[in-house]
Amino acid sequence: MTSTTTPVVRTLTTPDELGQATTLYRDVFGYTDLRQGASPRLLTALRDNGGSVVGARDGDRVIAFAFGFQATDGTSSYHYSQAAVVHPSHQGCGLGRALKSAQREVALGWGATRMRWTYDPVIARNAHFNLDVLGAVARWFHGGFYDDSSDRLLVDWDLSSAPGPRTPAQDPPADLVDWARPISDGDRIWLPIPSDFTALAKRDPLHAERVRTDLAAVLGPLMDDGWAAVSCSPYTSQTALYRLERAL
């Protein structure tokens, strides 16, 4: 039975917690290849050497987990969040935000002032959480980040500011046409995507693949030209709407 007490996210310390965390990570993402997992030894090394290894328990069971490490792009340093997962029975309860908040505190404690991570740009709920709930900015597009089918947006989160949503922009233009077809009003670019890409992929996989391909073809050049995604909000029952602005 799931506890009614709100789980506390904290640094994971015991071998049992770390073992459960690696199992949760594989199970939630559906990884069957051992090369895609993490090990308790790796997490111990990260935790004690500039990384973050945080999670929450419900009773004696780890039900949320996130980890990251200190990183650099050769110019600036930041904390890189590799993954954050929540057991399906506890999703939608605020644990995702709690994980990121705990990672933020750990990263600040190690001296980092920014955090980065990636997400799939076609998944609207993740985009909304990263951009609108946390206030991160998606600044870079990487096609085939892990393999040929894994396009990713790389987000940048300023840890010196309290997490929170951005000030809403004015209403989008009324002439939005189709998914992955951008419309500009001068200072902003609006980019529609499916509100539930997973459902679309199950219903019409060919259409879903076209949307993914078209979105990649749009996002890459826009971000190379200095545009950044700052919001992805629900627009209609079928559509969510990215808002891009010139990178600050």
From TrEMBL:
InterPro entries: Acyl_CoA_acyltransferase, GNAT_dom, GNAT_N_AcTrfase_prd
EC number, as in UniProt: 2.3.1.-
Domain N-acetyltransferase: 7-158
Domain of life from the UniProt record: Bacteria
One Pfam family per UniProt: Acetyltransf_1
Keywords on record: Acyltransferase, Transferase
Keyword Flavoprotein: no
Molecular function terms, GO-annotated: acyltransferase activity
Gene3D superfamilies to which the protein is assigned, alphabetical: 3.40.630.30
UniProt entry tagged with the keyword Ribosomal protein: no
The protein's name: GNAT family N-acetyltransferase
